[in-house]
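Hello again, I could really use a second opinion on something today. I've been puzzling over a protein and I'd love to understand its fold better. I'm sending you its amino acid sequence along with the backbone structure tokens. It would help a lot if you went through both lines with me. I've dropped the whole record in just underneath, so have a look.
***
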Amino acid sequence: MKVRVATAILTTTCIVLLALGCTKVSTQAPAGRGGGNPWTQNGILRVAEIDEPDNLNPLVGNQQAEVDLALLWGAWLYRVDDHDAWVPELATDVPTLRNGGISPDGLRFTYHLRRGVKWQDGAPFSADDVIFTWRQVMNPRNNVSSRTGYDDITSIEKRDDATIVVHLKKPYAPFLSSFFSMGSTPIPILPHHLLDGYADLNRVAYNNHPIGTGPFILQSYEHGSMITFVANPAYFRGPPKLQKIYWHFIPDTNTLMTQLETHEIDAWFAAIAQYLPTLQSL
């Protein structure tokens, strides 16, 4: 599980920086100009990975690829920045003893949620979604890989649409990093309005075409080949710099390396160490 967390944090940094902050070239410039390489396509990132996940919902999965892809369509209360610090995402601040977000006895955590956030179908995000997702984590019918931390919760109180108070059975030191953040079980917040009413979420259609609050919208999924994501124009942090991401599944590493060398692919975030010298020369 520690390997999964470390990989998730590394991938978070790579993908989020590329998608949201690193594309500085004007979208009006022709591809290959303005200092770019002739094979790059402006506003487009072509990623390849070896493993294709069984589904796209980390709640009922146990593969790293599910988390990597959820970084694009989904969102958490917190993410990790490029300095390995927890930063608010769907939350507005990090609860601490100093700001009153954590009670002195460590049994109560108060979360303030962003207002005005929309799901990618236009529905409003609210405290109901956070509470619903916790209930799905604790639903014994769901094939959840770990409930650590979540099972220490006695109840979640909704004070209003943008405020929840989490009550714990006992103090749990890593709770902040485990509750809907990029911790040991990185589960994104799920939409109550789309998934409420199912006995379990193990095989719902949503798992192959998730709708989230993240920076990219899943446009199409060609199983065994590729997922196409497009920029979410209503993303609460502003539209991403990238316009489109093609996420290819290439199980043969030799083929993947060849496509990197011929510039059919731009990035392989989970590259195997033995290929690093070759990749550094590209």
